[in-house]
TrEMBL record:
Domain (Fibronectin type-III): residue spans on this chain: 202-299
Stored Pfam families: fn3
SMART domains cross-referenced by the UniProt entry: FN3 (SM00060)
Entry GO terms, CC: spindle
Region (Disordered): 1-25
GO biological process: establishment of mitotic spindle orientation; regulation of establishment of bipolar cell polarity
Database matches in PANTHER family: ANKYRIN REPEAT AND FIBRONECTIN TYPE-III DOMAIN-CONTAINING PROTEIN 1-LIKE, WIDE AWAKE
The protein's name: Ankyrin repeat and fibronectin type-III domain-containing protein 1
Length: 683
C-alpha cells in the first residue's frame, strides 16, 4: 500500500513542478498562490471564459492549489497562513479531511509535530484525524514507512547528483534532493513526536449540575498536561453506579469550542454519576469523576408541583380576543362614521375632521396639543418627509386629560398595530359616552391610522417610554422602529441623522426648546434605548434587584440603561435550572426555622459572590444587604434558557414614596421606567 502511495507521489512529482527546496521557498510558493486566490479568483470577467465548464475547471484548480498551500503552511508551522486559509475557504473547499498522497491530513501533521496552536485552529474548523490510523501500531508503521521511503529517495537522488556531470538535468535533481531532504527531516520529527507522546492527563474542573427534570449538564476544562500531544476529543460516560458498572451511556465530543455536554433522556429523581476522559494520538487518558460525584435530575417546580406561570396564557388571550371580535362583529359600532348621530359630529374637533380629508399631510410645526411622531431608522439614516421633518401627525389640539393614563393605554395599543381599524370601530364615541378620556383615545386611533396611511406601513414600532414635552404645551408620543431591509415608504425619504440635525433651523430658543427640537437633539439616545431594549440575556441563572419608586400617577422600576427590558442583575451561573434540592435549601433559608447546611452548598457560594457584585453595582453598602431578602415564592423563568432569583430590599423600602429619602442612589448607567412600559418590554 505504501509503495503504491509513493508511486503516486512520484507520478505527482513528475506531473507538477518539484516541491519547495527549502521552507523559505515553500513560503514564497503558497504566499504567491494565496495572493492569486484573493485577487484573480474574483476578478475574472464573465465574458472572458469560453463556458461554464472552463470556469468550473479553473475554480477546481485554484481549490486544489489552496489545499496544497494549507499542507505547506501546516508543515512549515505558519499559524498566520493557516488561519488566513481557514478564514478564506470553507472546509469543503480546502478538502480539509481528504488525505494527501502520503495518507496524512493537515491535523495529523500538526499533532505529530506537537504544534498545539495550529492543531487547535484546525480542530475548530472541523478538521479530523486520518481514519487510516485505527491503532497505535498502524500509525507507528505508517510513520516508519514514510521515514524509510523518504530516506531511500534521498539516497537515490544523492547518488544521481554525485555521479552525473553538471548540467540542467543535474540542477533539477539537486532541487528535488533538497526538497526530499527537508521532507525526510519532517517525517523524522513527526515519528519522534509520536514516540515521545503519552496519553493525556485527566480533564480538570469536571463539574456536574442539574439541567432539568430529565437532564444533567457536565462542564470541564482541558487537562493540565496533554503530554506532548494535542487532545482531539473527549468522552463523557454516565452510570447509576459510582463504579460505572454497568455503564448507561457515553458521548464523544469532538467539537472543542465549548467543553460541556448535556446528558438528556434521564429519569427524574434518579442519581447519575459522570466521568470525563481525554484522547490524543496515543489513546484515551484516565477518567476524571465529577464534582459533585452525582446529580439527580429535577426542577424547582417539583417541590410543590406548581405549573409554569405562563402556560397557556398566550393561547387564552388569543381565544378571548377572538370572542370579543365575534361579539362585536355585527355591533352598531361597525357602521361607517357617516352614520353617527348629528351630535357626535359637533363633538369632534376641526383637527379630527382634517384627518379624513384626502389631502392629509404630515405637520410642519406644532401648535399646543398632543401629537404622534414615528422614527424609522436604518444604520445612521432616518426617515423624513420631503420637507426634511420627522413625520408628525396631530392627535388632539385641545388636549386636557390625564396624560399618563392615556399614554399607557397607547402603549398597549402598540401591541395591535394591525388591528387599529377594528379598534376604531369598537371605540366609537357615542352620544351617551362622550367622556374626555374616550374621545382622546378615539383620536389616538385616528392619528395612528393617519400615520399608517401616510407611511404606507402598519407596524409603527415600539413606543418610547415617555412622551417628549415642551413649555409651550406640546406633547409628542414617539414610536421607534429599526428597518433592516430595503423597505420602501410613501411620502418620505432617507436622510443621514447628522445631516438632519445640522441642517434643521430651530424656531425655539436654547433655554426653552420646542418638543421637536428636543426630540431631534436626543434622537441618538432614543435610538440607543430602542436597540438595547431588544437585546436578550445569554442563557443562565441571574440574581435580579427589584426597586420601585412611586409618583402621583405612576410606579417606576429601576433598570440598567444597557438592558432596559430587564431588572438590574448579575449572572449567578450559566445553568438556568434550579433543582428541587436547591429550592428546598432556599425555602429553609427563607424560613430560618431550620438553618440549612451551607459549607458544601454550591448555590450558597454562587449567591454570596452574586450578592456582593450586585450590591456594588447598585451602590448599596454590603452591610445593608443583611436586611435584604430573597424572593422565595418562585423562580422567574423567561423561556427555557433564562431564569431569575429576586433580591428584595426590606419591605418598607421596596417602593420609595414621593419625597421619601433614599440614601443609596445607583451610580450612572441606570434609569427608571414606568412599570407598565417595563412589563411590555419584558414580554
Amino acid at each position: 500500500k505504501m509503495t503504491q502511495q509513493m508511486r503516486d507521489l512520484q507520478l505527482a512529482q513528475a506531473r507538477k513542478p518539484p516541491g519547495p527546496s527549502s521552507p523559505n521557498a515553500a513560503k514564497r510558493l503558497y504566499r504567491n498562490l494565496s495572493g492569486k486566490f484573493r485577487v484573480n479568483y474574483t476578478s475574472f470577467d464573465e465574458g472572458s471564459l469560453a463556458g461554464r465548464g472552463e470556469k468550473e475547471k479553473l475554480r477546481k484548480s485554484y481549490l486544489f492549489q489552496s489545499n496544497a498551500a494549507l499542507f505547506e503552511a501546516v508543515e512549515l508551522q505558519d499559524l498566520d497562513k493557516v488561519q488566513d486559509l481557514l478564514k478564506q475557504y470553507s472546509p469543503e473547499e480546502l478538502d480539509l479531511n481528504t488525505p494527501n498522497s502520503e495518507g496524512l491530513l493537515p491535523l495529523d501533521i500538526a499533532i505529530m509535530t506537537n504544534n498545539a496552536p495550529i492543531a487547535r485552529a484546525l480542530l475548530q474548523a472541523g478538521a479530523k484525524e486520518s481514519p487510516h490510523f485505527v491503532s497505535l501500531e498502524s500509525r507507528s508503521l505508517h510513520l516508519s514507512t514514510l521515514v524509510r521511503e523518504a530516506e531511500q529517495r534521498v539516497n537515490e537522488l544523492t547518488a544521481q547528483v554525485v555521479n552525473e556531470a553538471p548540467n540542467a538535468d543535474c540542477s533539477e535533481k539537486e532541487k528535488q534532493l533538497k526538497a526530499w531532504e527537508w521532507r525526510y527531516r519532517l517525517y523524522k520529527r513527526m515519528k519522534a513526536g509520536f514516540e515521545h507522546a503519552r496519553v493525556p492527563d485527566a480533564p480538570i474542573n469536571v463539574h456536574l449540575s442539574v439541567a432539568s427534570s430529565s437532564s444533567v449538564l457536565v462542564t470541564f476544562w482541558e487537562p493540565l498536561s496533554v503530554n506532548s500531544a494535542v487532545v482531539t476529543k473527549y468522552k463523557v460516560e454516565w452510570s447509576c453506579s459510582p463504579s460505572f458498572s454497568p455503564p448507561l451511556g457515553e458521548a464523544i465530543i469532538d467539537k472543542l469550542q465549548n467543553l460541556h455536554f448535556t446528558i438528556q433522556g434521564l429519569v427524574s429523581g434518579t442519581a447519575y454519576y459522570v466521568q470525563v476522559s481525554a484522547y490524543n494520538m496515543k489513546g484515551w487518558g484516565p477518567p476524571q469523576t465529577s464534582t459533585p460525584p452525582f446529580a439527580i435530575p429535577s426542577n424547582w417546580r417539583e417541590y410543590d408541583g406548581r405549573a409554569p406561570r405562563r402556560r397557556g396564557q398566550a393561547e387564552a388571550l388569543d381565544h378571548l380576543l377572538g370572542q370579543v371580535k365575534t361579539v362585536h362583529q355585527h355591533c352598531v359600532c361597525h357602521e361607517p362614521c357617516k352614520n353617527q348621530p348629528q351630535s357626535r359630529k359637533h363633538s369632534v374637533s376641526k383637527s379630527l375632521k382634517h384627518l379624513f380629508h384626502p389631502g392629509s399631510k404630515f405637520l410642519k410645526t406644532l401648535k399646543r396639543g398632543l401629537y404622534l411622531t414615528a422614527i424609522f431608522y436604518k444604520d445612521d439614516n432616518i426617515l423624513v418627509t420631503h420637507e426634511d421633518q420627522i413625520p408628525v401627525v396631530e392627535i388632539d389640539d385641545t388636549y386636557s386629560c390625564l396624560l399618563m393614563q392615556d399614554f399607557l393605554w397607547f402603549t398597549k395599543v402598540s401591541c395591535m398595530w394591525d388591528e387599529i381599524l377594528w379598534l376604531r370601530q369598537c371605540v366609537t364615541v357615542s352620544q351617551s359616552s362622550c367622556s374626555c378620556i374616550l374621545q382622546t383615545r378615539f383620536k389616538m386611533l385616528l392619528a395612528i391610522s393617519q400615520m399608517q396611511g401616510l407611511l404606507g406601513i402598519q407596524d409603527l414600532g415600539q413606543v418610547f417610554f415617555e412622551p417628549v414635552k415642551d413649555k409651550q404645551g406640546n406633547i409628542l408620543i414617539v414610536t421607534l422602529k429599526e428597518v433592516k431591509t430595503n423597505q420602501t415608504f410613501e411620502s418620505v425619504r432617507w436622510v443621514p441623522i447628522c445631516k438632519l440635525q445640522s441642517s434643521r433651523k430651530s424656531v425655539s430658543s436654547p433655554e426653552e426648546p420646542s418638543a421637536l427640537d428636543t426630540l431631534l437633539i436626543s434622537v441618538q439616545d432614543k435610538l440607543a434605548y430602542h436597540q438595547r431594549s431588544s437585546h436578550a440575556l445569554s442563557p443562565g441563572l441571574y440574581l435580579g434587584y427589584l426597586k420601585l419608586c412611586s409618583a402621583v400617577d405612576q410606579i417606576r422600576v429601576l433598570v440598567p440603561e444597557q438592558l432596559p427590558n430587564i431588572l438590574c442583575h448579575v449572572k449567578i451561573r450559566s445553568n438556568p435550572n434550579v433543582s428541587r434540592e436547591e429550592w428546598e435549601w432556599l425555602q429553609k433559608m427563607a424560613s430560618m426555622a431550620e438553618p440549612p447546611e451551607t459549607s458544601q452548598n454550591h448555590l450558597f457560594q454562587e449567591l454570596q459572590v452574586a450578592i456582593k457584585e450586585l450590591m456594588t453595582l447598585v451602590n448599596i453598602p454590603l452591610q445593608e444587604a443583611k436586611d435584604f431578602r430573597l424572593y422565595s415564592q418562585e423562580v422567574l423563568d423567561f423561556g427555557d434558557q433564562v431564569s431569575f432569583l429576586l433580591l428584595l430590599p426590606p419591605s418598607d423600602d421596596v417602593c420609595t414614596a414621593p419625597g421619601q429619602n433614599n440614601p443609596y442612589t445607583p451610580r450612572s448607567g441606570f434609569l427608571t421606567l414606568p412599570l407598565q412600559i417595563f412589563e411590555l418590554g419584558e414580554e
